[in-house]
Amino acid sequence: MFNSFGNIIRLTTFGESHGKCIGGVLDGYPSGIVIDEAFIAREMQRRRPGQSEITTNRNEKDDVEILSGVFNGRSTGAPIAYVVWNRDARPDEYEKVKSVYRPSHADYTYQLKYGIRDYRGGGRSSARETSARSVAGALAKMALKQLGIEIYAFTSQVGPVKMDRDYNGVDFDLIDKTPVRCPDMAVAERMIEYLKEIKANGDSIGGTVSCVIKNCPIGLGEPVYMKLHAQLGNAMLSINAAKAFEYGDGFDGIELTGSQQNDVFYNNHGYITTRTNHSGGIQGGISNGQDIYFRVLFKPSATISKSQHTVNDKGEQVDLKVNGRHDPCVLPRAVPVVEAMASLVLLDFYLLDKTRQL
Amino acid sequence: MFNSFGNIIRLTTFGESHGKCIGGVLDGYPSGIVIDEAFIAREMQRRRPGQSEITTNRNEKDDVEILSGVFNGRSTGAPIAYVVWNRDARPDEYEKVKSVYRPSHADYTYQLKYGIRDYRGGGRSSARETSARSVAGALAKMALKQLGIEIYAFTSQVGPVKMDRDYNGVDFDLIDKTPVRCPDMAVAERMIEYLKEIKANGDSIGGTVSCVIKNCPIGLGEPVYMKLHAQLGNAMLSINAAKAFEYGDGFDGIELTGSQQNDVFYNNHGYITTRTNHSGGIQGGISNGQDIYFRVLFKPSATISKSQHTVNDKGEQVDLKVNGRHDPCVLPRAVPVVEAMASLVLLDFYLLDKTRQL
Amino acid sequence: MFNSFGNIIRLTTFGESHGKCIGGVLDGYPSGIVIDEAFIAREMQRRRPGQSEITTNRNEKDDVEILSGVFNGRSTGAPIAYVVWNRDARPDEYEKVKSVYRPSHADYTYQLKYGIRDYRGGGRSSARETSARSVAGALAKMALKQLGIEIYAFTSQVGPVKMDRDYNGVDFDLIDKTPVRCPDMAVAERMIEYLKEIKANGDSIGGTVSCVIKNCPIGLGEPVYMKLHAQLGNAMLSINAAKAFEYGDGFDGIELTGSQQNDVFYNNHGYITTRTNHSGGIQGGISNGQDIYFRVLFKPSATISKSQHTVNDKGEQVDLKVNGRHDPCVLPRAVPVVEAMASLVLLDFYLLDKTRQL
Amino acid sequence: MFNSFGNIIRLTTFGESHGKCIGGVLDGYPSGIVIDEAFIAREMQRRRPGQSEITTNRNEKDDVEILSGVFNGRSTGAPIAYVVWNRDARPDEYEKVKSVYRPSHADYTYQLKYGIRDYRGGGRSSARETSARSVAGALAKMALKQLGIEIYAFTSQVGPVKMDRDYNGVDFDLIDKTPVRCPDMAVAERMIEYLKEIKANGDSIGGTVSCVIKNCPIGLGEPVYMKLHAQLGNAMLSINAAKAFEYGDGFDGIELTGSQQNDVFYNNHGYITTRTNHSGGIQGGISNGQDIYFRVLFKPSATISKSQHTVNDKGEQVDLKVNGRHDPCVLPRAVPVVEAMASLVLLDFYLLDKTRQL
Q: What is d(CA D296, CA D337) in angstroms, rounded to the nearest whole number?
């Protein structure tokens, strides 16, 4: 019931980390959109592991096979199903930890909830599930592009190393120029240095991904329980390892008073707009035409190379030492997933808004 | 379509700030629960304005009239509908601002989205809608009480004045002892002083509400798109003026590495538990039996007494000076709403979890 | 969870037969529609009991009080909540049958499912719930009227007395001319005679309501699990006492072969249409621009004046003799409910269809 | 959005008749169920074409490949995705009819709704989609078997040839003994003779499938808009070519009065039951413990070998002569699909009923 996301366009995903495949079904996608498979491949390439020395060595090709919903290069309105086959799965590596509850992973909670679990690489709880989101996000982006809506996510903080909060000077074209996906080159350099250190220690670290949505039409978002920012928050918090969501000023504005934080309207040559944008482009849960921006906090990868104490499913205390392939930091690979989820939310709300008037 | 919240138990609310009433329909509520109307009244009393010098003077009795779903003092399984009549509504006060877009309110976005708006006190976008949530939350709490689940929210920061993050020493019985609803008496004192100052300036301020859920059973939460924390985040971000949600360590843990932040399992006399709780009681989106805790950031009330520049619906620049009844800080009244929404989420997920095995 | 109906526009109803009221919340209704309360009152008048000698004597005024969602005479896009107060409720009459399971009523199944039931007139299971549908249906009709879509239901069979199947000669203006709501005056006369006889016997009888939808745009309906006829069937079968749904030729076509029943396309002066309409205006679950027509079968009212054997909640055999106010035949009053539900489905699908293309 | 069916367990299907595959994702399936792939294969075998001289010659192996959700032979609670590869697809055969609107098919309505269509064998609108339902139905049956619930569908009428309505003497073990799936051997013989004649004429014919559900627990079904029979009706009407649904007495009871049709309760040695079952096992939308039974009407296959007049997408009149592989009657193959959909509804409502009390 809950492997689905969205209202008008609804994504359902399936698959396990070391099963046959990860896949998805995107239902409600508008008909007649030209499907650019090369673009999907590029988006997948951004999310896939093995891209650099600061990410996992797991080398997945992540080729997408579209199974339905596209005919003669266009979407037909039928559900678009697709799979990403797990070609580099190595389930045997997990035989030795099959009875061990890895700290801060979902092994224990899945076992208690379901009475059974696919222990191979976390099974369904693995971040590999996000590859299915990337495909759907790429499809959503194609439609948003026709509407002129642009979505940019980037790594804005890694542990103690952070970018300036104001994104206005940022050149979004630089995001993919470094493996850490921070568009401030000097900060990116420091992040990479820091990550190498973390990796050398067999440890991991978290940070924040920021996201900016430009050219969002006025009026997207539904009161009261489907506010635009609430659904964005929901989408982001559904990503593996996400721990927090803030939009607009967020926590940085906590000491500002109402008179300091209110966004005053003015008439800008016939167009009503606001002088500031503390609100992050959303008022009353509805887009106001300004830039939408938000930040997502990710915790460190739970998988580390350091030895850890834990227990197994018999309750015996054991030491866990993982030699698996893992990321010291999920941020660089989370960037495209944040964009994907934001794209799905925006397209869904765009379509939904068409029903507000006869 | 989106004035509803929840899955198995679904709350639908209706009503406008200065219309006839605010109301709700709670569908899917289990049958046979003894409905304690006095308890509902006490919960409403906590949310209602006019409680002290640091909240709005609007004096609403907020009596709840249950319309259906309760028979001979028990829930029947039929939808429980209720209304809170707007007895102190003063719609005429809003005639003078009917054409003005108040800064950081939803006037402008509602007008653009719907082509029409109820301008009286924000209409549907008013925080008065949360009175309907309080009733539903009180109903959910009655059921949770039978399950032993306890939920405590409290004001943990007001502008620059903040409590210690660790809630373990907190005496939750003190929450309602001060009008600011901070259970640390010394900090509460400082918050109140600060709020008096803010009020005297005709200004407003934001802050955070923290929430702790104790005795949550293991296994609540649904992967992948209905993770327990994602749905809690969704619920909290749907509350008026909410700007951020974090759970577990949240932003405070941003510089901690994986080896520092992982929650190591151990066998505590036959019961598997974790030595720390950086995860906030949730792993892989599913409760692990530890305390669940999270924080919600609220921005300052958009309504202030200070004069503000803005525009009206003809695009003309005007000055806005509101003499209305408003809160300098929404936090104290947001506390019970946070509890209400958390209660709805927990009960919903508890019921849902019953369907995971035959 | 399941006191709601619809997708984009969603009706949630509440209330019990002899509780305070019956009510509803219509969410997702388009903004800006002029709300004609007199029209709602007329529609309610059509459904209400006490209209003639062939319906129940229960005399309900059925005044509708709109609680929200309408401002200055227009819909605002906020949920429209309303109540119909139960002014003529006589709950005491049910004290004597409170422990008796009335045959073919929902007393027994509700008691077993919920462990408690409101025994006053069937509580939530009473057909009085349909008054909330009539209000929502009237609102939907107002929107459909702007789109030119017309919906006509009428009594087409009462026990053995039936109209000719072909509705093409029917003058829909005659539907409300007789209390039985059959637009064929001669047949109506025979139906009324038959019903008087049934009533005199203290018995009840069923029959069919037919419904014709004219000017439906091409393209309404969603494959695969929300086909237009499947959702119409779902809507109709949710009405109390409904036992069957058929559309197009239905059972009458069971002996026709494919070559006899296929609707051949032709070019009618530049407009593609079909020569026949065995399909009932729907092909592949999607409207094709022809008239949509269907029939709903209703069983006899379960409440009869004749004495019946049954058991009480202790399992003791008892005789039941009801002197309550009841209809010998639900058909005349079901007619407006069929129209109401069809209107809700059509408006929902019209709005939904707007999301099929960017 | 609408290629999904169900509440707690939700089936989403995808795929086109002559695309790569037909597939489905079954979400919410309980964990820990032993998955018997041989049983799935047998169920698929029942639905597949090419079984006999009275069905289509299209020879599909219809092997099911499970992609996810099953681990070590058991369901894990993760979504079960599966595909049936289209090995015998012959899309080229459809090139010649690509611009023709086949009478009583969905070609025209899909084209108008979506502006594009997969013309190969009806694409998404093909009855081949039901193979995905069969897999899901087989999975549901495995769970229902553990609960003792049994579901039997069979062909009860083909054109003018019909079985006796009373199913009580029927030996359900005989259903699969003849290719027409009618358990009355004499009637089956006549049906087969009739179908050979129809096939020889290049024509097609419809009829009814009856379904009986035994050992259904008391209490399944949700008021008001998710009544058990309404959801069964919805499920059945979503099957290709279905035109009507009736349950209990249905149309056959139209001349019976209330006193004749009411099901009188009595105490059968300590167990409350009804003397008759005109209600079809459902009262007030909730199962009462008696047999549930209903009938589904299917129209003749729209595809016939006879030449037909029609138009193409330019509006030109053309003659259509199909040499494709098609069934003279969909009934025999619809039987397992009816069982599949009924199984999905029953399991869904069983799980849902677990949430009605704490």
A: 11
User: Whose CA is closest to A338, among A276, A228, A205, A245?
Assistant: A245
Is the Cβ pair B284, A255 closer than 8 Å? no
Cβ distance of C123 and B71 shorter than 8 Å: yes
Long-range contacts from D255-258, C-beta under 8 angstroms, 24+ separation: D255/C159, D255/C160, D256/C206, D256/C300, D257/C159, D257/C198, D257/C201, D257/C203, D257/C204, D257/C205, D257/C300, D257/C304, D258/C104, D258/C203, D258/C204, D258/C205, D258/C300, D258/C301, D258/C302, D258/C303, D258/C304
Q: Which residue has the tokens 């969410």?
A: C27
> What is the token pair recorded at D100?
């023709």
CA dihedral C357, D2, D7, D11 (to 10 degrees): -130
Whether D68 and A20 lie within 8 Å, measured CB to CB: yes
Beta strands in B147-281 (DSSP E): 150-158, 161-162, 207-214, 242-247, 265-268, 271-274
- For residue A354, the chain C residues in CB contact (below 8 A) are 354-355
Q: Which of C67, C73, C220 is nearest to C132 (CA)?
A: C67
Q: How far apart are CA A99 and CA A119, in angstroms?
A: 8
pLDDT of residue B96: 80
Against chain A, the chains showing at least 3 CB pairs within 8 Å are B, C, D
Check if A28 contacts C (Cβ < 8 Å): yes
Closest among D121, D21, B282, B7 to A23, alpha carbons compared: D21
> Is the pLDDT reported for residue C87 higher than 90?
no
* Residue D199 scores a pLDDT above 70: yes
Rg of the Cα atoms in chain C = 21
Q: Within 10 A of D307 (CB to CB), how many other CB atoms are there?
A: 11
Question: Is A27 close to D12, i.e. CB distance below 8 A?
Answer: yes
Q: Which two tokens stand for residue B234?
A: 């969704």
A356: pLDDT strictly greater than 70: yes
CATH of the domain at A113: 3.60.150.10
Chain D residues in contact with C230 by the CB 8 A cut-off are 233-234, 237-238
Task: With residue B65 as reference, give the H or E element that holds it.
Answer: strand B64-66
Enumerate the residues of chain B whose CB falls inside 8 A of the CB of residue D32.
Answer: 357-358
Q: Which of B318-322, C313-317, D244-248 has the lowest mean pLDDT?
A: B318-322
User: If you count them, how many residues does chain A have?
Assistant: 358
Q: Indicate if the pLDDT at residue A244 is higher than 90.
A: yes
Q: Output the 3-class SS for C314-346.
A: CCCEEEECCCCCCCCCCHHHHHHHHHHHHHHHH
pTM of the model: 0.97
Closest by Cα among D159, D175, D139, D168 to D28: D139
**Residue A50 sits in which domain range?**
4-354
Mean pLDDT to the nearest integer, B105-131: 94
If 0-12 CB within 10 Å is exposed, 13-18 middle and 19+ buried, where does residue A189 land?
A: middle
Does C217 contact chain A (CB < 8 Å)?
Answer: no
CB-based contact D15 A76, cutoff 8 Å: no
- D30:B357 CB<8 A: yes
Displacement of CA D122 from its chain's centroid (Å): 18
**A109 contact D CB<8A:** no
8 Å CB contact of C257 and D218:
no
A111-139 pLDDT, tens digit each: 999 999 999 989 999 999 999 999 999 99
The C-alpha torsion from B264 through B269 and B272 to B277, rounded to 10°, is -50
D304: tokens are 């016939």
Residue B147 burial (10 A CB sphere; 0-12, 13-18, 19+): middle
Residue B352 with chain D: CB contacts under 8 Å: 355
Q: Which residues of A touch B317 (CB under 8 A)?
A: 266-267
- What is the domain count for chain B? 1
**Across C136-140, D2-6, D54-58, least confident range:** D54-58
Tell me the Ramachandran region of residue B239: left when phi exceeds 0, alpha when psi lies from -120 to 50, beta otherwise: beta
